[in-house]
Write a structure and sequence with these properties.
single chain; about 240 residues; alpha/beta; 5-stranded parallel beta sheet; 3-stranded antiparallel beta sheet; globular
């Protein structure tokens, strides 16, 4: 009987309860999971194992220390080994997310940054997105019909330049620069309108919903069933640049 290859995931988190519960859920989804409780354990496993992805707690050393971003050290080690990462954290801030997803030192440190408050389903959804990408397709490749030139501020559909209003372009350009990662409504409203809203207020802001609808009318063949500008339940939006 043919056996499906199990994706090997390293879960690095300093909470024993969280490690145990998430490991159990991942194994139910047929992932092979190794766990680490510290930076050293995670690095040692990366050096000796062959992993397809790493899930990393941002505060891997001390949950009570606001300065603790030791998970970045694990991500840097994984990057050297070409192992993709996803950050998980109960203490997410926009600055940390920007650094993880848009680091200019050696490219992004992670494919996604998930707040633990969204629950384990958000982690499972992110893994499905990552592992559904074609192996031969580079992460930064644009959709076949959609071309975005950030340097010159141009957007093309099948080679034809689109004349997008400023807010629509700002939304598309920001999601493109996220390289397929999810952007929260709070993050998008800050990037587009330069307004600081609470997560609750941002999630119910009708401006963003209307802006997404209008942009979909420009770039999607079937706006009610979007191929590119995708909503991720309870988290925000992403640009499906891997399609």
């Amino acid at each position: 009987m043919n056996q499906t290859y199990q994706k090997r995931v390293l879960l690095a988190d300093n909470s024993e309860d969280y490690r145990r519960s998430l490991k159990g859920l991942l194994e139910l989804e047929n992932y092979a999971v190794e766990i680490a409780a510290s930076v050293k354990e995670a690095k040692d496993l990366l050096d000796t194992g062959d992993f397809d992805l790493v899930l990393i707690d941002l505060r891997l050393t001390d949950d009570d220390a606001s300065y603790d971003v030791s998970g970045f050290e694990v991500a840097k080690t994984a990057a050297k080994l070409s192992v993709p990462c996803i950050f998980i954290s109960a203490f997410a801030t926009m600055d940390y997310q920007r650094f993880a997803l848009q680091s200019r030192e050696a490219g992004p440190l992670a494919l996604d940054f998930i707040e633990k408050k969204y629950g384990p389903q958000a982690v499972l959804d992110a893994l499905r997105i990552v592992f559904s990408r074609p192996v031969t397709a580079p992460i930064l490749e644009s959709p076949p019909d959609l071309s975005i030139d950030i340097e010159h501020g141009l957007v093309r559909i099948k080679g034809e330049v689109l004349d997008l209003p400023p807010y629509q372009y700002a939304l598309l350009a920001y999601l493109y620069q996220k390289q397929g990662a999810v952007a929260t409504p709070q993050e998008l409203i800050k990037a587009i309108y330069d307004e600081d809203l609470t997560p609750k207020d941002a999630s119910t802001d009708r401006r963003l919903e209307r802006l997404v609808d209008r942009l979909r009318e420009k770039i999607e063949k079937d706006p009610p069933n979007p191929q590119f500008l995708v909503k991720v339940y309870a988290r925000g939006y992403r640009l499906a640049i891997d399609n």
